[in-house]
Amino acid sequence: MNFTIDKEAFLKGLGRIQGIVEKRNTIPVLANVLLEGSDGELHVTATDLEVGMRSSYPANIGKPGRITVSAKKLYEIIKELPAREVAFLAKENCWIEVRCGKAHFNIVGLTADEFPNFPQPDQSNGITLSSNLCKEVIEKTFFAMSQDESKYNLNGIYMKATTEQGENRLRLVATDGHRLALIEKPIDGILPDSLKRGLILPRKGVMELKRLAEEGETGLTLSFQDNNAVARKEQTVIVMRLVDGEFPDYERVIPRANDQQALIDVDPFLHALRRMLILSSEKSRGVKMSIKPGLLEVSSSNPEFGDAREELDVDYQGTEMNIGFNARYLLDILQVQDEQRVRMIFKDHLSPGLFRPEKDDGFLAVVMPMRL
To answer: Where in the sequence is the domain holding 75, given as residue range(s)?
Structure first.
């Protein structure tokens, strides 16, 4: 196989798959990128057997073929080349020659026969989302995904579609057992049966989907086949294996009896929490919130370093209350808000806090309190 390709296009393709390839793997070929040249296009593919990506780029294909090569090393080489055309030649025994200007590299690859088959996606049973909508629903939930791999059913985002009063709605939910984030938005189109039942997208796949949505304004199609979710945007396809597990009954942890409501400006609250975080316990990251009509005091303390407190104006007419939260959890919520003010709705110091934007946009978050 041999081809020439624009350096920037090749670099973009290799950069996209860096988050997918396995750096340390018992299967060596999974650290490689599969390059396939045919019909004026170079296909760039990577997989870790859970998430896979394939993109296509215009190229001058001198001789069609397939080869795999270290994704990391090839990316590093192409990144440092001058901005011009790159010539690529696959030789005997899986050796690969890369030329650009006066730069010349010989690197060893692996046969493409060892690379896993990339499934052929069926786009017939999918939904179409705008890039902005896809970015929004992921950004407002992904921070609550669990990072504890033993809780495999929480290592992703739960996605479900419903029809209410003739309107289709898409709901995403994430939780790690200490907090929960939920967003629901209207969507168009025919709903796939698997989406009506609900499914769990894996953490790694969610992050790749978010990156894909952030590339330009073109919308993407999300479809489902067998045990996979398939996302397509222009010439890029992501295939991810759905999490095999039951998502917990999240509805029962959303507070229904909270009646103490406070309205506060997001920006000063966010910066105050960042300041309190400096002297909070490095283990718990806890901050204490003392709230009374018109005033919120946030404070933190650390026996090794000292303590801090700050007062903020708040629209609140409820009873005085002291309640503790992990400051990082609150910051994650505030950082994804589009509104200037957020509602904090409490019951007492032992019950979960409910957080919503001032104007309902389908988003809510629940955070468990801490004893401080």
So the answer is: 2-114
